[in-house]
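Continuing the batch. This is chain 6 of the set; chains 1 through 5 are on the previous pages. Same settings as before, nothing changed between runs. Recording input and output for traceability.
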Amino acid sequence: MLSDWQYIGLFVALSPIFPAAPILIQWLLGPKKPNAIKNQTYECGIETVGDTWIQFKMQYYIYALIFVVFDVEAVFLFPIAAAYDQLSLFAIGATALFIILLADGLAYAWSKGALEWI
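Output for chain 6:
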């Protein structure tokens, strides 16, 4: 019988196979007939006009990134809120520290002007 660490080692050793296998199988068995039409830029069924490389403002990316970070961190708070009456004092302190770090990150982003929409 395998020990707990051997199961973890087996999982770590086999885990690269699952994402690599479909890529490798597609590369081996997939059709390879490139042509000019297939290599054109395609977007929503409309042929592109002009230059397809447009510079987007970095602010859009930063705003979306801040939203995703705080959205994911809010998801971490849901289980804590659901089991609040069953938490120990240490867990409540860790949650308070987590919320303080969130507020600090928000204050930092706000002070750098990342939340200002121009």
